[in-house]
Amino acid sequence: MHFTGVSLVKLGYVVLCPDPLCFEDRRDPTGRLRKGDYERYEFLRYDRIGSYGHSMGSTHTWLVGPWEPRIRCMVGNCCLPTYEAIHRHTLLHCFPNFVPGWHRFGDTPDMAGMIAPRALHLNLGELDAGSPIDEARAGLVSIGAAYQAAGASDRFTFFIEANTGHVLSPAMWQKTQEFFAKHLI
Prior knowledge:
Elements: H1 4-10, H2 37-45, E1 49-54, H3 56-64, E2 71-77, H4 83-88, H5 108-113, E3 119-125, H6 133-149, E4 156-161, H7 170-184
Parallel strand pairs: 1-2, 2-3, 3-4
């Protein structure tokens, strides 16, 4: 109605404009519930939260995951840069990948491993220059070990698509949907 989101974007702000469940375009499609009752109805059906992110959004997913226990299922697409890869390949990566002082304790996969025992799936492109595959593969082994130690090996999966770069491919999207269907429904 007011287009404040668009106006703020034009001023240079990053804006999230969610359409809340049970309001506006997401109202009761059947029209059978009284005003206000649809929100209560949906509240009873939705008690699990998932998180999906691509690229920097993937980084945000596995950085927030260890600290937000309400997120039960996470999928990261195309971003698992390790500090080892950043240094070896002289990558100038985006700021969310650098947690000051963390390198003394471990690498980025060690952060993602702290999500265990909650569900985590990572999609990677074999040719993604931002997540060099040799170090990413080693990182996946590290995350897998954390899940095994937590008794949750079945809740960590990954998919590496050959000859693919920094994209959300149809195969990656299919893996994402399957993972959410398994862990959020």
